[in-house]
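Section 3.1: Structural characterization of target chains.
Under the original work plan, the team committed to producing a structural model for every single-chain target entering the pipeline before any wet-lab resources were allocated. The record below documents one such target. The sequence was received from the expression subgroup and is listed exactly as submitted; it comprises 348 residues.
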Amino acid sequence: MCCSVSSAFAQPAQEQLKVATRIVKPFVFEENSRLTGFSVELWNEIAKQLNVATEYVVKPTVKELLSSVNNHEAALGIAAISITAERELHWDFSQPMFEAGLQILAPVHGDRAALIRSIFANLLSTAVVPYVLAVAFILLIIAHLVWWFEQRHPSGMLTEKSYFPGIFEVCWWAASTLATQADQMPRAAVARLVAVFWMFASVVFIAYFTAAVTSNLTLQQLRSDINDAKDLPGKRVGSVQGSTASEYLRQHSIEAMDYTKIEDAYPALQDGQLDAVVYDAPVLLYFASREGKGRFQTVGAIFRKENYGIAFPDKSPLRKRVNEALLKLKENGTYESLYLKWFGGTGS
């Protein structure tokens, strides 16, 4: 009798839902071996409203996330998924859960570390290195010629006439001449002729070297002059493969380097391989205010405004229930609290 009463009042088993997501700060990321972020916390609140348990399935890209929803591996997908007309043909979306758009991330102007990296990058560029190697080779030839004639002269400039001490001494003289800092001249007649030739060649090389480095630095400064989307053509731009940002760049004939995830584009921007990164505004703002603070900044206004939504398979019965729960969270202030926690502004 006791057992039958217990069964009569037993709670129904909680529904288990598989939810596809992907790592994209600050919407979804791992911390202390668990998923967190705006989208994760929002879904957890929705799940409470629906009285369902959640098993997250992490996918590497939006494309794979949406595919897992389409083939019913997951009941729905949530992260930072833009609602587009093309996606609406294949998936159902909830009402907008976040208002977003695209923005540009660029290095901070005047960053000393970036300037140092830029100088070294120019010194090691393909426009400069071949000439440096050529001059180093000619310097060695000049040094050997001067050594050969000077070590035969009774009062030559060499303090040591044997090969290794002598050749090092003459190499130092040739390098000093290149920098216009030589304090003595060879004594042998032929060695003096070689020295005069080397002096003229040094002037030409220094002039070319200065012009090449200055030209590269000027070009880089022009490339970094990005204020809005109109300045992107002709620049080295990075984005994420399959994203709405990548699609925008393609539609506007802006050549872009596509990365699997946005975190791969940041090092390329820092190392000077890119002039700018175009991606979802809240993701770039979050990075620029935290990990990239002082090194990167968002520039220009948000463009191509778009909304994020929760993706469902076509005609999913869950969509209506999730929309109702999302509306309740917006009405009771839970949504705004989450928005303030992660973005520090007024939520939509």
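The radius of gyration is 32 Å.
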